Amino acid sequence: MKKMLTVTTLTLSLLLSGVGLAVPQHASAATTSQDDKIISTAKSYIGKVKYVYGERNPDKLIFDCSAFTQFVFKKNGISIPWGSRAQAKVGTKVSSISKLQKGDLVMFSVGTKGQINHVGIYVGNNKFISNTKSSGVVISSMTSGYWSTRFIEGRHL
């Protein structure tokens, strides 16, 4: 019993002093930026979220595009309004795709030309993630295909 107590005490002493503990090569979790956390959160919902226009149901993971961005930002401690046009009023306006930063909101026109009615989150390399009617949460190119002519502005929070 005394030997077991001595071994336990020694083990606890070593653990608490840090001796014998492996030190990670990269402390990525501790140094990950807020923007990377936002993007990681959004990506974690690929294939898990259903799109319904005008819907905001986090319990069932049913959102429209702006409810999804609102949900992702809230998960990261940032409060933004619901609605793509309401979200287009927060933060600082970014007029050019080349000036966007990871984690920026990106606004698009998918109906009435020039009118903001879709929102996503910029992930870098001219790509963004959003919740879409056709595919749910997806990463799309902003500079080729469907979205290339629909970008209106970004918002840096």
TrEMBL record:
Xref: InterPro entries: NLP_P60_dom, Papain-like_cys_pep_sf, Peptidase_C40
GO molecular function: cysteine-type peptidase activity
Keyword Hydrolase: yes
SUPFAM superfamilies: Cysteine proteinases (SSF54001)
Signal peptide: 1-29
GO BP field: proteolysis
Pfam family, one: NLPC_P60
Top-rank taxon: Bacteria
Record keywords: Hydrolase, Protease, Signal, Thiol protease
Presence of the UniProt keyword Nucleotide-binding in the record: no
Segments forming domain NlpC/P60: 32-157
PANTHER family reported in the protein's UniProt record: MUREIN DD-ENDOPEPTIDASE MEPH-RELATED (PTHR47053)
Similarity remark: Belongs to the peptidase C40 family.
The protein's name: Hydrolase Nlp/P60
Organism encoding this protein: Paenibacillus rigui
